[in-house]
Amino acid sequence: MKSIMAFNPGMVIRAVTILSFFLPCLLPTAKGQHKTNQDTAQVAYYNLSLFDITKIKSFHSQELQMFGIRLGISIDQVKNTLRGQDSIIIKQDKFNDKRFYLYEDNHSNKGHPLLYLKWPENDPSTLQEIIFYPGCRKYFVGNTKKLFTNATLNFSQSTGQMFFGYPKAKKNLLRVPSQNIRHTAYYYTDRGYEIIKLEKGDKTKFAFGIFLKEPL
């Protein structure tokens, strides 16, 4: 005669409890995760070359990364990260030793920069601002490429209305009347990003930036 095990509600509850504890560790996540030093808290990062952030309902600049680089890290961390990426080179700004340009390595070391990285003068351990120049556009995906077009500041279009909203502040970064050059930044301080309008003569380009606090 086959024995029949009696139903035990307590065993079922314990099994479900154990499964619910381990299940989050087994499920894949859409974002890379980085554990902080505070208990088991986690911070997730969206790779801008993989994710269309215009489709994400809510995010902050501290959740974004490109080429493994994100806000809040040190100069040494950036250099170590780029050692494994032969196609990207880093060059120090000759006017400021706490600022760096990132270029594609095209053997001639010429061309337009992809990124501009800014650290405070007194704190080389905390990257405060990253500017993505138009040359970086090809690395972005989906509607995120519109960050480099006038759609970002055109509030009659869906990109400007739904994703950006209205900037909290505006600042003149550069004015050279003799060459008809104007650079204007529009800041979205609540989420830590900026749109920079680059005008020279009758030509206009756009750059996208992210920052920790207020831009340097």
Task: Walk me through what this model shows.
The protein has 216 residues and is of the alpha+beta class. The chain has one domain (32-211). The protein is 15% helix and 33% strand. The chain has helices at residues 9-26, 75-82, 158-164, and strands at residues 32-35, 42-47, 64-66, 69-70, 88-93, 96-104, 115-118, 129-132, 169-176, 181-188, 193-200, 203-211. The N and C termini lie far apart (81 Å). Residues 1-5 and 11-42 have low confidence and may be disordered.
| Helix/strand order | HEEEEHEEEEHEEEE
Mean pLDDT: 78
Strand arrangement within the widest β-sheet reads 5-6-7-8-12-11-10-9
Distance between the termini: 81 Å
Q: Which structural class fits the helix and strand makeup?
A: alpha+beta
Stretches where pLDDT falls below 50 for ≥5 residues? Answer: 1-5, 11-42
Summarize the helices and strands and which ones pair or pack:
Blueprint: H1 9-26, E1 32-35, E2 42-47, E3 64-66, E4 69-70, H2 75-82, E5 88-93, E6 96-104, E7 115-118, E8 129-132, H3 158-164, E9 169-176, E10 181-188, E11 193-200, E12 203-211
Parallel strand pairs: 2-3
Antiparallel strand pairs: 1-2, 3-4, 5-6, 6-7, 7-8, 8-12, 9-10, 10-11, 11-12
Keywords:
single chain, about 220 residues, alpha+beta, eight-stranded antiparallel β-sheet, four-stranded mixed β-sheet, 3 helices, about 15% helix, globular
Summarize the structure.
Helix content is 15%, strand content 33%. It is α+β, with helices and mostly antiparallel strands.
